[in-house]
Amino acid sequence: MSSEIPAPTEPTTDAAAEAADQHDPTAAPVERPKTTGLHVGDAKPGVAKVDPIIVADGVRRTFGGLTAVDVEHLEIPRGAITALIGPNGAGKTTLFNLLTGFDKPNEGTWTFDGKSLSGVPAFKVARLGQVRTFQLTKALGLLTVLENMKLGATGQRGERFWSSLIPALWRKQDAKIEARAMGLLAKFKLDAKAPDFAASLSGGQRKLLEMARALMSEPKLVMLDEPMAGVNPALTQSLLDHILDLKDEGMTVLFVEHDMHMVRHIADWVIVMAEGKVVAEGDPYSVMRDPAVIDAYLGAHQELDLGVVTGRVTAEEADPTTDAAASTSVDADELASAGTAEAEAEFAPDTEEKKK
Ligand SMILES: Nc1ncnc2c1ncn2[C@@H]1O[C@H](COP(=O)(O)OP(=O)(O)OP(=O)(O)O)[C@@H](O)[C@H]1O
Predict the structure, then answer these.
(1) Are the C-beta atoms of residues 320 and 305 closer than 8 Å to each other?
(2) Three-state DSSP class for 60?
(3) pLDDT digit string (tens) for 97-130?
(4) What SMART domains does the annotation carry (predicted)?
(5) What's the predicted TM-score (pTM) here?
(6) Atom 17 of ligand 1 has which residue's CA nearest to it?
(7) Which atom of ligand 1 is nearest to the CA of 273?
(8) For 92, 133, 166, 242, which has the most beta carbons within 10 A of its beta carbon?
(9) Which has the closest alpha carbon to 265: 220, 222, 318?
(10) Which residue ranges have their beta carbon within 6 Å of ligand 1?
(11) In sequence order, what DSSP letters do the residues of 84-142 get, joined into one string?
(12) 68 CA to middle of ligand 1, Å?
């Protein structure tokens, strides 16, 4: 988007210092259990969930003659981390915009936590506990880190006419909001940056700020749009840990991401979209082995192994040669079989011990 500030390139030394600040690079990554038993019956597009937080039906959004989203039925499991993946133009962002009230569908209904959200504007959706992260725009970059955090608080007295006329009320509330903001900034190790312009942050720090800002409203569901985009590999582990922490703290996470290795490492459930439709669903291990998914997507997105980046596997174990083979092949059958072999090697549960 043109209004976004391009993420600054992170000098290696700064990035290393930042990473050390966020996460001890010598510490072994702590293995966290995946949440299982999320669905009822066979894992297939639209499968029912044991405890869904979002249920969408017949959601369709067209732009002129193009159908960007055409989702028959979709349930997002509560208390788990769900990844929404798919090739460019699959409709992921459009679906995100619809679910969060930032766009209106041509037709369709959906509920969040049992309440219908059809036609509910974005600010009310956020008040109900469903928040999404936003990329740092030029305008937000000109606010300080702390001011950005305060913008994330919902239900402020100043938003209500009569309360806004009584300074004592909103001053007290402002102090409370500031305390919460500083607490979250400390957790994300950004407290020292509180007075700095947000535009001065590195790519990774911006992602942390986006996440911290979303948490200001104490959400039940956090929706992350490409949390790893533009993040220096040195900060990757810290970001992954923060996302896993959200689940441990009882939140549900839904994220759009192109990095398959991130999906493999942290997602409990994966939903695959292509041409506006949900084409596959399941746990990461089975989805990555689905030939339809490999055909539609995986062959071209295996360039970087987060396992290597985060020290969970060595470069030899990750075998980068298969990645190159899969992404350069032009023959569909070859691609599928190369992708299948790779996906099996990469995503089979019995390779879990590789990470340790
Ligand atoms: N405002 C719009 N006007 C016209 N077409 C749009 C608009 N927004 C999205 N589209 C089109 O809808 C389709 C789905 O786009 P969307 O951005 O949702 O895909 P995506 O899966 O998020 O892709 P990416 O991974 O590249 O971000 C694309 O063909 C896109 O060009």
Answers:
(1) yes
(2) strand
(3) 999 999 999 999 999 999 999 889 888 898 899 9
(4) AAA
(5) 0.77
(6) 93
(7) 21
(8) 92
(9) 318
(10) 63, 66, 68, 86, 88-94
(11) EE-STTSSHHHHHHHHTTSS--SEEEEEETTEE-TT--HHHHHHTTEEE----BHHHHT
(12) 6
Q: Which of 62, 58, 63, 41 is nearest to 50 (CA)?
A: 41
CA of 66 to the centre of ligand 1 (A): 10
Structure tokens at 140: 């937000």
- At position 246, the amino acid (one-letter code) is L
> Tokens 């909103």 label which residue?
170
In testing the pocket of ligand 1, which one of 63, 67, 278 has its CB within 8 Å of the most ligand atoms? 63
Q: Whose CA is nearest to atom 8 of ligand 1?
A: 94
In angstroms, what is the span from residue 91 Cα to ligand 1's centroid?
6
- For 279, the enclosing helix (H) or strand (E) is strand 277-282
For the segment 196-206, what is each residue's pLDDT rounded down to a tens digit?
Answer: 999 999 888 88
ipTM of the shown complex? 0.98
Query: What tokens does 282 get?
Result: 């399941």
- Given a cut of 70, whether residue 14 has pLDDT beyond it is no
What count of Cα atoms within 13 Å lies in the side-chain half-sphere of residue 97? 12
CB-count burial class (<10 Å; 0-12, 13-18, 19+) for 103: middle
